[in-house]
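Review box. Two proteins, two foldings.
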Amino acid sequence: MSGLKRNIEIKMRLTEEERDTLLERMLDAGISNREAYLRNMALTGYILRLDMSEVREALRLMANVASNVNQLSKRANETRSIYANDIIQLREEVGHLRLHLSDIMKVFSKIRKIVDLQ
């Protein structure tokens, strides 16, 4: 879409109350550009704003698990043994990661149901 020139203008009139509602919805959607907001609403019918904090937390947990697996692998290669506590800790970390991923999938499932209804 690079080089796209929007040269067709469409005007609309609103009451002050409608304008205030429009601005409020823009803020709720996290969009400050009115033209971009109106274009997106006109073309798609909805604005989707996701809170990605759970995804970031899952990525952090996954990085911890990967780091611990690497450490266990290195120790196992060097000493030919690993400790039971290390395995237990790794299982707990994987369990936390699974819970976060499950929560994320539930949210995506809800979003999909909402989008499919429109």
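Next protein.
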Amino acid sequence: MLNFADAFAGMPLIAIVRGVRPDEVVDVATALYDAGIRIVEVPLNSPDPFVSIERLSEMTGRMVCGAGTVLNTEQVDSAVAAGSTIIVAPNTDPSVIRKSLVRGAIPVPGIATATDAFSALAAGARWLKLFPAATYGPEHLKALAAVLPAEARVIPVGGVSAANMKQWWSSGAAGFGLGSDLFKPGMTPHQVRDRAREAVDVMSALRRD
């Protein structure tokens, strides 16, 4: 079974499909898979998100499915029951982090400051989502990376695209979460695949350099 750490090591990109519908989610995820992405996140403010997560769970072994915009422990329970193995939040809530770990899921809390980051680490998180990344910029990440322990992995999300991944990568990003740059409601799977391929090509080139 493909797990988050292995999928991220293979291609450190998370596709955030905010607004995806259950009737299209498998086609969209298949397009992402064809492009080389192995992790997909369904934010809970999408239409019927738990239904989409359940349908994505059919791709277990090929894709890792996560729930995003998870704000409380009840949503953690529902997301895990639907098949999510990663729990992504826009904020740092120790109760959400601890609940995720108890349920056997990987928490990816949102952080902005060193205070957020160390609170998340103290609660048991090791993967940290810098959000919204565009507000802070690569220099902010570089400063954070100087004080964080080696086991902390920071993933910029929010305003990250194929056009600016290089700056983030050189500042210490472990990988990226890509949202509207990959998927917007109304896009076809073909369009998603083309955008995802561009991001995968950029990421692959950065890792070679």
